[in-house]
Amino acid sequence: MSVLFMTAVVGLGAFLAGLVGSLTGIGGGVVIVPLLTLVFGVDIRYAVGASLIAVIATSCGAAGTYVKGGFTNLRVGMLLEVGTVAGALLGTAIALMVSPNAIGILFAVTVLFNSLQSLRPRLPDPPVTEASGKIGRALRLAGSYRDAGTVRHYEVRAVPLGFAIMLIAGALSALLGIGSGVMKVLAMDRAMGLPFKVSTATSNFMLGVTAAASAGIYLQRGYVDPAVTFPVVVGVLAGARTGSRLFPGASNRSLRTLFVAVVVAIALQMLYRGLTGALG
Amino acid sequence: MTTAGTPQDGAVIADQRMTTILVSVLRIGAALAATATVLGGLVLLWRHGGEPADYHLFQGVQAGNRTVGDILAGTLTGDPRSLVQLGILLLIATPVMRVMASMVGFVIRRDWAFTFVTSLALVGLLYGLLVAT
Questions:
Q1: Which one of B53, B95, B127 has the shortest CB-CB distance to A6?
Q2: How many CB atoms are closer than 10 A to CB A95?
Q3: Is A173 buried (19+), middle (13-18) or exposed (0-12) by CB count in 10 A?
Q4: CA of A131: how far to CAs of A128, A156, A161, A164, in Å?
Q5: How many C-beta atoms surround the C-beta of residue B10 within 10 A?
């Protein structure tokens, strides 16, 4: 198999990764790792490096369109980013003390459980009480977005809980070389009460910063190989751009279904890698 | 969530100008990164496209393409691998520039709470990229 052939197939796979990653707010790393390791037998470390860069590419490729369309809650995104960056620095600091395999298994079980729960018919949102929405109001986090022609307004609650989850998401990003988009979307959608589309667009916005905080370490360790990563970057940027054009017309329901399907795939993959010791 | 008719809250779509600037930063960053990566990648393919693909063994990227200084130096000598790495660096720099632009925007709007928030994110990012590595 020639380099040219591998580049073409990886580029196509990366396009798909950027498409799905930008629509679900998960980032584009999902498809990249199994494609590179299982199909092309690439060493897991090169695959993780390429996957982390794919997350940044998904974010940069789609974020402009989401911000312009008013789907991203900029203030929520910028506030929670502080949590993910702090978490990423923490993760880097403790990287040598913990077992990535155990962490990966823990991650898989947690997101599997939470995402399957999110498929159940959603209960009416608990009202945003004086206490639960206090910080959201003080920082003017509430927002509105356009959905199927109507402007929908939403409040933001449980900011401290959301921030705490972002610390964990950031640490996982540094430890596992992932974007942690799943945890971001779940935190905003389920804990903070943001509409699903706003959660995915805001997660996509934040992913670039989270992954950038961890990327320096992976670059420096020599995990980011130019020949492996080049088709990934190009494919993902194109896929994310396409995804961001489809996004405004997609319903919350269809995006949620896609999200859960992808999460199940990610969790099973992470579980497999954790159990076989491939994360260490 | 209530439907329709609520006046748009200042929080999200307030400053159209800031939105425009952030969108420009993101798009220009992505375009520059794509250009460098594609150029370097095409030269790489031109030279090595016919060789067998073998990444089974982890050898680590050659020392010359891991740090900012080395990547810049390699790019100047015309090494296509360094040019791809430069594109990747530009990609990593894009969210950092976006955080910087937001911070400046909040300073102009005299929104001190969010000036503080974005400066924390920026300090953390720069620490992670420059010091921790």
A1: B53
A2: 13
A3: buried
A4: 8, 12, 13, 17
A5: 12
In total, how many domains does chain A have?
A: 1
Top pLDDT among A240 and A175 is at: A240
- Write down the pLDDT at residue B6: 42
Q: Give domain status of residue A280, yes or no.
A: no
CA distance B111 to chain A (A): 10
Residue for token pair 């095409």: B42
Tell me the chain A residues in contact with residue B94 when contact means C-beta distances shorter than 8 Å. 56, 60, 208
Segment holding B15, helix H or strand E:
none
- Contact between B87 and A233 (Cβ < 8 Å): yes
* Arithmetic mean of pLDDT over chain A: 87
Q: Does some domain include residue A73? A: yes
- For residue A61, being part of any structural domain is answered with yes
Burial class (CB in 10 A: 0-12, 13-18, 19+), A101: middle
**Cβ <8 Å between B40 and A230:** yes
Q: What would the pLDDT profile of B84-131 be if each residue is shown by its tens digit?
A: 999 999 999 999 999 999 999 999 888 999 999 999 999 999 988 887
Model confidence over B5-29: pLDDT tens digits? 344 444 444 567 888 899 999 999 9
Q: Which of A222, A28, A203 is nearest to B81 (CA)?
A: A222
Q: Is residue A262 part of a domain?
A: yes
Query: Phi and psi of A270, rounded to 5°?
Result: -65, -40
Q: What is the pLDDT of residues A33-48, one digit of tens each?
A: 888 888 888 888 888 8
CA A81 to chain B, closest CA, distance in angstroms equals 6
Report the C-alpha gap between B85 and B71 in whole angstroms: 7
Indicate which of A3, A46, A196 best probes the interface with B, i.e. most B CBs within 10 Å of its own CB: A3
Q: Which residue of B has its CA nearest to A71?
A: B12
All residues of chain A having their beta carbon less than 8 Å from the beta carbon of residue B128 are 85, 88-89, 92, 212-214, 216-217
> What number of other Cβ atoms are within 10 A of residue B52's Cβ?
10
- Nearest CB partner across the interface for B11, out of A43, A75, A195: A75
Domain of A25?
3-275
The closest of A234, A7, A36, A3 to B88, measured between CA atoms, is: A234
Nearest CA in chain A to B83: A226
Task: Tell whether A223 lies on the interface with B, counting CB pairs under 8 A.
Answer: yes
Please answer yes or no on whether B91 and A233 come within 8 Å at the CB atom: yes
The answer to whether the CB of A222 falls within 8 A of the CB of A5 is: no
